[in-house]
Design goal:
There is one protein chain. By secondary structure, the chain is mostly beta strands. The chain has 5 domains: 23-73, no CATH class; 83-235 and 257-281, no CATH class; 285-443, Sandwich (Jelly Rolls), CATH 2.60.120.1060; 464-601, Galactose-binding domain-like (Jelly Rolls, Sandwich), CATH 2.60.120.260; 604-805, Jelly Rolls (Sandwich), CATH 2.60.120. It has 4 helices and 61 strands. The strands form 13 sheets. It has an 8-stranded antiparallel β-sheet, with no helix packed on it. Strands 48, 50, 51, 54, 58, 60 and 61 form a 7-stranded mixed β-sheet that branches. Strand 27 and strand 28 form a beta hairpin. It is elongated and about 115 Å long.
Length: 822
């Protein structure tokens, strides 16, 4: 019985053992010379300077790089339920959450973008609480919140969750809403009510040139497209690729490839274990699968198939396989089929193979044609009638003659060739399933390089409205910036070579344009860095070295150019010129913004010269302010009777101030609260519009104590209070910033709010002198960094203020780092 049982077990295991022995290697790649490489061991793609190999064979040999690499044990995914589709067919699975336009008051300018919560598997080096990807709005083709049964793109159409649809001319987004311009007026919709939003069609070729300018301004760099088993399709370049490994770097399952497509403002970290396809293209070799067809078996096509064409799949959704070979990209179609693609004057040739898909076996027959220019023109290529899937027709390279003024269309046509099919072929069209295999449109490399060069200045949002002139030796390197708590990002820098970069325009200055802010930074700390010069009406108004910014900083401190000397009572036109002057060494500079502002965004006034303070008796204040007993030497505030006398008001005085024109004088006893017009965020790593540091000045008359509190939503649980003077703290949990008797002179206090109280959102301030005669407060400001306080209004020269900076020993010189670590 034992022998029979053992034999039975061996017989049951035999089929799986045979299958294992006949299973093809996990990975297969095709190289540029047409050779195919198979293997089990993918190695050496976890470091930036490494050369990846498959079973020891180089995959990125400059003389013979791979065209594509496939993991046979993974299957490409169908379209997810929610996704964002880009102009080139790329796809980000996830939910579009809200739209962000230009940030007002920020010295940094960026592309308007969507915040997308990704559903694809990502593996960044650091964990993120709420990962989002910022998707550049101009590259978006379709937004899908709830996918419909039809996958057909209908330009300028919104499909609502109730099943209705609307055609529109244009769309304007604002947060979680969209305003549509219709034929008969406008309509505002909530994103929550939309199933799909198909944006109007754009010029593919202009977007493609912009993509190259962002991803690979050097035409020698190759584009790389990743496709995963959960629906992500993302195209970036080897120039914007960062790799790392979790755990053992020797195994490819631990790798993550960080890529940043032109349509993303963030690096997307893709686990290598989820990648089905890696495809590599030279910029001048454009896969037709990346060009949205102008027409694909449209309603006007006579005899058009009921099976729609599929991108990178056969018509049944499987991988492309014909003639006993696998292919990396292409179209699956069913005859009759006609695909039309917009041409560009840069197009010089088309390459492709054609075959019947392996799913039809020996059946099916087709004839392929290629037309250019007018879709009705005679074909520039026509294949013989193909029968069965055993043979692939190599079309080779077919030259194109494109008219610059009317480029027209490139047409790929598959005919069932019913009248031409040989004897014995299928009498029906059911098995006429064809594959256009690895079709490529070739562009003129020299003319493409010029188009990229023209497009490059448009990819710097800071330069919008400026005319940029660069020398022929200028280069555009890609710089990786990493940020704690949010995704890394590649920035495109510009190195001028030997000639300066010149930005020029006519500026109309109004009395409110008091500052010109230039956000520019470079990541090299050596001497002789590039300099920025600003000329107004030909006069040198500003010159300074470009600030150093290490890769861990959130934002670079802007260069501040005062314009008060150029303003007049009304608008005034000036000829402005900004120059990036080369330094001793070749150093790329990243430009983030050029803006005119009335107020500096790195500091925020809480009180300076103006403010309405409301007096409140201490006993009537809610639990957010609970006075403690004053010191024995200080008088006690008398209790209020049932008919209290009016509280003395706060007054603005001009004869005793620390800076500006007026200070606020507060009698001892009442609390005085000033409400802020908007909530102000205090954060550890303050972005634009957020702050970290507090500075205020006070002068105490009649000895005693003073108190300043920042009111916020959680004031009861964790109050943010400072006090100064002798004796017990003015209020519970107050931090003492000056101990001992307070001198009768102006005293300046600087504090790190985040270090003292953590994150908070301040909506007001409360000032108090519990004892003595009165107190004067002045110049109460928030700042992003300690160094930003240098832009505060200067104090009167008649009486210097004593500065007390408690807490960390912050440096004061401009040459030292005055920022919290970014």
């Amino acid at each position: 019985m034992t022998r029979r049982l053992l034999l039975s077990v061996l017989l049951l295991q035999l089929p799986s053992a045979v299958a294992e022995a006949t299973r093809p290697p996990r990975f297969v790649a095709r190289l540029r010379d047409g050779s195919q490489v198979e293997g089990e061991v993918l190695a050496n793609w976890h470091k930036a300077d490494a050369i990846p190999t498959l079973d020891g064979r180089s995959l990125l040999d400059p003389g013979n790089p791979m065209l594509w690499l496939r993991d046979r044990q993974l299957n490409p995914a169908s379209a997810p339920d929610a996704f964002v589709e880009l102009f080139s067919g790329d796809r980000l699975p996830g939910m579009a959450l809200e739209y962000h336009g230009q940030t007002r008051g920020s010295p940094e300018q960026g592309f308007p973008h969507w915040l997308v919560g990704p559903t694809t598997q990502l593996r960044p080096p650091q964990s993120l609480d709420e990962p989002v990807i910022r998707v550049v709005a101009k590259f978006v083709r379709r937004l899908v919140w709830q996918r419909r049964s039809s996958d057909r793109y209908q330009p300028g159409t919104v499909f609502l969750l109730d099943g209705s649809s609307l055609s529109f001319r244009s769309a304007r987004f604002d947060g979680e809403q969209v305003l549509l311009l219709l034929e008969t007026g406008t309509r505002r919709l909530l994103l929550a009510d939309i199933a799909e939003l198909h944006l109007p069609a754009r010029d593919f070729w202009q977007d493609y040139f912009d993509e190259l300018a962002l991803s690979c301004p050097n035409p020698d760099t190759r584009l790389m497209q990743l496709e995963t088993d959960d629906g992500l399709v993302a195209t970036s370049s080897l120039d914007r690729l960062t790799v790392f490994a979790w755990g053992g770097a020797e195994h490819w399952r631990n790798w993550a490839h960080g890529i940043q497509p032109a349509w993303s403002l963030d690096v997307i970290y893709v686990p290598a274990a989820n990648v089905v396809f890696r495809r590599l293209f030279a910029p001048q070799d454009v896969p037709l699968t990346r060009i949205p067809p102008a027409r694909a078996d449209g309603p006007g096509a006579v005899g058009a198939s009921a099976w729609p064409p599929r991108v990178n799949r056969n018509v049944q959704g499987g991988t492309l396989h014909s003639g006993g070979r696998e292919f990396g990209w292409g179209f699956g179609v069913h005859a009759f089929s006609q695909l039309q693609f917009p041409l560009t004057p840069l197009a010089v040739a088309v390459r492709a193979d054609l075959g019947l898909d392996r799913t039809v076996g020996d059946g099916g027959s087709i004839q392929g044609r290629i037309r250019a220019g007018d879709p009705a023109s005679p074909p520039i290529y026509e294949s013989p009638v193909l029968v069965g899937s055993k043979t692939v027709r190599g079309i080779g390279r077919v030259g194109l003659s494109v008219k610059p003024e009317t480029p027209g269309q490139l047409v790929l046509e598959v005919d069932p060739a019913h009248d031409k099919r040989p004897a014995g072929a299928d009498p029906f069209h059911i098995r006429d399933c064809a594959d256009w295999l690895e079709p490529v449109l070739e562009l003129n490399p020299g003319r493409l390089k010029e188009e990229i060069r023209r497009s490059l200045p448009r990819q710097v949002p800071a330069w919008e409205g400026w005319t940029a002139v660069l020398g022929p030796s200028a280069t555009w390197p890609s710089l990786l910036r990493e940020f704690p708590g949010r995704p890394a990002a590649f920035s495109r820098g510009v190195s001028t070579g030997k000639e300066p970069l010149v930005l020029s325009r006519r500026l109309t200055l109004t009395p409110r344009d008091r500052w010109l802010l230039l956000s520019a930074g470079q990541d090299r700390a050596q001497q002789g860095r590039p300099r920025v010069q600003v000329l107004l009406d030909g006069e040198l108004a500003f010159e300074q070295e470009v600030p150093f910014s290490d890769k861990w900083r959130n934002e670079v401190g802007p260069l501040v150019v005062p314009l008060q000397g150029y303003l007049s009572a009304g608008p005034r036109d000036v000829e402005a010129e900004i120059r990036q002057v080369p330094g001793d060494q070749e150093t790329p500079v990243c430009w983030q913004g050029i803006v005119l502002l009335e107020r500096l965004p790195m500091i925020q006034v809480l009180f300076e010269d103006e403010g309405v303070f409301v007096a409140t008796a201490p006993e009537s204040v809610d639990g957010s302010v609970t006075p403690t007993e004053p010191s024995a030497a200080a008088p006690v505030t008398p209790a209020l009777s049932q008919s209290p006398a009016p509280l003395p008001p706060a007054t603005l005085v001009a004869d005793d101030r620390q800076s500006g024109t007026r200070s606020v004088k507060l009698p001892a006893g009442p609390l005085y609260r000033l409400r802020l017009p908007q909530s102000l965020a205090v954060r550890e790593r303050a972005a634009w519009g957020e702050f970290r540091f507090l500075r205020f000045a006070f002068r105490k008359k009649g000895a005693g104590r003073i108190c300043l509190e920042l009111n916020h939503r959680q004031s009861v649980e964790r109050p943010a209070r400072y006090d100064a003077g002798q004796g017990q703290p003015c209020l519970l949990q107050a931090r003492r910033v000056r101990d001992g008797a307070l001198p009768d002179e102006w005293t300046v206090i600087t504090r790190d709010l985040f270090a003292d109280f953590g994150p908070l959102d301040a909506d007001g301030i409360t000032l108090w002198a519990p004892d003595g005669e009165y107190v004067l407060f002045d110049q109460i400001y928030l700042a992003r960094t300690v160094d930003d306080f240098r832009y505060l209004p200067q104090q009167p020269a008649t009486e210097p203020a004593a500065e007390v900076a408690t807490g960390p020993p912050w440096p004061r010189s401009k040459s030292e780092s005055c920022r919290p670590p970014y």
